[in-house]
Design brief:
By secondary structure, this protein is an alpha/beta fold. About 35% of the residues lie in helices and about 15% in strands. It folds into 2 domains: about 160 residues, Chitobiase, domain 2 (2-Layer Sandwich); about 325 residues, Glycosidases (TIM Barrel, Alpha-Beta Barrel), CATH 3.20.20.80. Strands 1, 2, 3, 4, 5, 6, 7 and 8 form an 8-stranded mixed beta sheet that branches. Strand 16, helix 13 and strand 17 form a beta-alpha-beta unit. Bound molecules: 2-acetamido-2-deoxy-beta-D-glucopyranose (NAG) (8 copies). The site of one 2-acetamido-2-deoxy-beta-D-glucopyranose has 3 residues, from helix 8. This is Beta-hexosaminidase. One of its GO terms (molecular function) is beta-N-acetylglucosaminidase activity. Keywords: Glycoprotein, Glycosidase, Hydrolase, Signal.
């Protein structure tokens, strides 16, 4: 038995298979090798594209986007490519292709079959066609055909994953020719939510996260910009907000930073969506405007909020309306050119906050529901008035029975039954099921405990959403779990969440990658079939591809976590016996 399975694994390892991630819908590859160099002739709808290393688009035009994509793809192959030593038997010495009589990929012909329009660059879910076809023939002709420039970008990422770097300098090759791929995503919203309030992330770290998204065909970066702990967002009309509420004077996203982040994402087909969480999770406003808050810094925090410091915008105070008119009026204008959405929060509203609010004075559910309906209507009006579509957390409709418009996208986090309820109500849903998609979970508590009874009874100090969401668990995530086909269609996609109590940019990459890419494949290629049916993807077939994606991310400057040790990637038996 053991000998047999070892043999099977070794045979697999001896025959290189393309390791594309996410796996394309349809893919066939061959076994001929072609080399590539900087002389490759690239055309876009018949016009030459000049490869310029490091080219960064400065405008949202189809040509600039494609030129940027081509330059990044060739930079990736020639500068940040993968030398795949880890994917060959340890004693195999001749696995690299021969350098005699080289054959080359001579040309890359890109054809876009429709014109882009403004929705292409800031789409609502489903408004941009990301499909593409990619072929590389044995005569060295590569072709990409796509409906939109964003489809071209997706194809170029796949193209880079076909190539390897030779052990000696300056040779780059693909051993998979001929290649034929037709590909398109199953879900249109594939994102990462990053909390930049509990810890600050530099603009560079955010741009690197966008690089990771683009590399694995994720198309949304949702910045949960503000929360209770710090206000890192500059609002020019209210300079004290960030001057006092940011952790440090320089831990602030200026207007120019926001535009830079959004443009960087948009030209990579990654929409950056901002969230100003409200009315809870706003204690950071109190550094400048404590009079707008109720339950500000109240203790014990467990009575007034989910985590310290407490503080919630007053729900029956016209000064709050004026303040939010200013904040939202300014920030929605800033983001409008680059996004279709704005997220207005709404999670974890705590009943006792209105109890201690002098303008309300009760924690009665019906009173809070009515106040939240009015607050949410105003909040959505600000977003819609700016030409954007509102997003909100699930508690607003589910816990407080607030009625939303049919345009609104609801972000769910509490799991399958919440998604069932929301889709029953007919709402469009983004699922961030914490049982699968919360990447911060399972690393222990950030609060410290009192010595004494609880000191020992709370051991081993697990966090609330333990265990860790391993890549295998994320790979088993099914956005359609327990839904009818009609309900499943309302789930426009999912986001992994990176809440930042114990994460900052030092550990960001290892926590995000490659696990975010694992959700990415579930959303792009489709969820794994339920146990017992005849699916083709599973953990065992995915692991070699994921190991390779991880190495490619590393080569591109993203410190993705290790998936398996080289013993496994070299063909060792790392499969749990049945
Ligand atoms: C590598 O080692 C394996 C296992 O010992 C052996 O079967 C194989 O022949 C060796 N291959 C080479 C190229 O030495
Ligand atoms: C924009 O392009 C998409 C295809 O990428 C198409 O579905 C949509 O109808 C176009 N919108 C407009 C306003 O032309
Ligand atoms: C993949 O191939 C199947 C069978 O030929 C076809 O029905 C399907 O449309 C193809 N998918 C794409 C994205 O082209
Ligand atoms: C609300 O506050 C009261 C004190 O006024 C406290 O007894 C109660 O436990 C709090 N509710 C919750 C859910 O913590
Ligand atoms: C509402 O306030 C009362 C009185 O302080 C308290 O006993 C109760 O626990 C509160 N309810 C909630 C949901 O906090
Ligand atoms: C809101 O405040 C007004 C006074 O400004 C008061 O008349 C009204 O009852 C309050 N509403 C609630 C729900 O407490
Ligand atoms: C929720 O709101 C709807 C419409 O406003 C109302 O018909 C329904 O009774 C409410 N349900 C609860 C549980 O409050
Ligand atoms: C799905 O629904 C079934 C039957 O209603 C229930 O037993 C199961 O717990 C649900 N699954 C999840 C993940 O909620």
């Amino acid at each position: 038995m053991v000998a047999l399975s070892l043999l099977a694994v070794s045979l697999l390892a001896l025959n290189p298979v393309s390791a594309l991630w996410p796996e394309p819908t349809n893919v066939t590859t061959g076994t001929q090798t072609l080399f590539i160099n900087e002389d490759i002739r690239v055309t876009y709808n018949g016009q030459p594209i000049v490869y310029t290393a490091g080219y960064e688009p400065s405008t949202l035009t189809s040509h600039d986007i494609v030129q940027g994509g081509v330059s990044r793809a060739l930079d990736t192959i020639f500068q940040d490519g993968l030398y795949p030593w880890k994917f060959h038997l340890r004693n195999e010495t001749d696995w690299e292709p021969s350098l005699f009589s080289l054959k080359w990929v001579n040309s890359l012909k890109i054809t876009q079959t429709a014109f882009d329009n403004t929705t292409t660059f800031k789409p609502l879910a489903g408004q941009v066609d990301e499909s593409y076809e990619l072929t590389v023939d044995t005569n060295g002709q590569a072709e990409i055909t796509a409906v939109s420039s964003i489809g071209v970008l997706r194809a170029l990422e796949t193209f880079t994953q076909l190539f390897y770097t030779y052990s000696s300098n300056n040779f780059y090759y693909t051993p998979f020719v001929p290649v034929s791929i037709q590909d398109k995503p199953v879900k249109s919203h594939r994102g990462i939510m990053l909390d930049t309030s509990r810890n600050y992330y530099s603009v560079a770290a955010i741009l690197r996260t966008i690089d990771g998204c683009a590399a694995s065909k994720l198309n949304v970066l949702h910045l949960h910009v503000t929360d209770a702990q710090s206000w890192p967002l500059e609002i020019e009309a209210l300079p004290e907000l960030s001057a006092k509420g940011a952790y440090r004077p320089d831990y602030v996203y200026t207007p120019a930073d926001i535009v830079k982040i959004q443009l960087y994402g948009a030209v990579r087909g990654v929409q950056v969506i901002l969230e100003i969480d409200q009315p809870e999770h706003t204690a950071a406003i109190g550094w400048a405007y404590p009079e707008l808050l109720t339950a500000y810094n109240y203790e014990p925090y467990t009575w007034y909020c989910a985590e310290p410091p407490c503080g919630s915008l007053r729900l029956n105070d016209s000064a709050v309306d004026t303040f939010m008119d200013t904040v939202m009026g300014e920030i929605t204008k800033r983001v409008y050119p680059y996004t279709a959405y704005f997220h207005v929060g709404g999670d974890e509203v705590t009943a006792n906050d209105t109890l201690v609010d002098p303008s309300v004075g009760t924690n009665a559910t019906d009173v809070i529901e009515e106040l939240l309906q009015i607050y949410t209507d105003k909040s959505f009006a600000r977003v819609r008035g700016a030409g954007l579509t509102p997003m909100v957390w699930e508690e607003i409709p589910l816990d407080w029975n607030v009625t939303l418009g049919s345009d609104v996208v609801v972000q769910s986090w509490l799991g399958v039954s919440s998604v069932e309820s929301l889709t029953n109500l007919g709402y469009k849903v983004i699922d961030s099921n914490y049982n699968f998609l919360y990447l911060d979970c399972g690393r222990g508590q950030w609060v410290t405990f009192q010595p004494g009874e609880s000191y020992t009874s709370d051991a081993p100090y697990n966090d609330w959403c333990s265990p860790t969401k391993s890549w295998e668990l994320i790979y088993s995530y099914r956005p359609s779990a327990n839904l009818t086909a009609e309900q499943a269609n309302l789930v426009i996609g999912s986001e992994v969440a990176i809440w930042s109590e114990t994460i900052d940019e030092v550990t960001l990459d290892t926590l995000a990658w490659p696990r975010a890419s694992v959700m990415g494949e579930v959303l792009w290629t489709g969820e794994l079939s339920e146990e017992g049916s005849s699916g083709t993807r599973d953990q065992t077939t995915a692991a070699p591809r994921l190991n390779e994606l991880r190495e490619r991310l590393l080569a591109r400057g993203i410190n993705a976590a290790s998936v398996q040790m080289p013993f496994c990637t070299e063909g060792g038996d790392c499969i749990q016996p049945a």
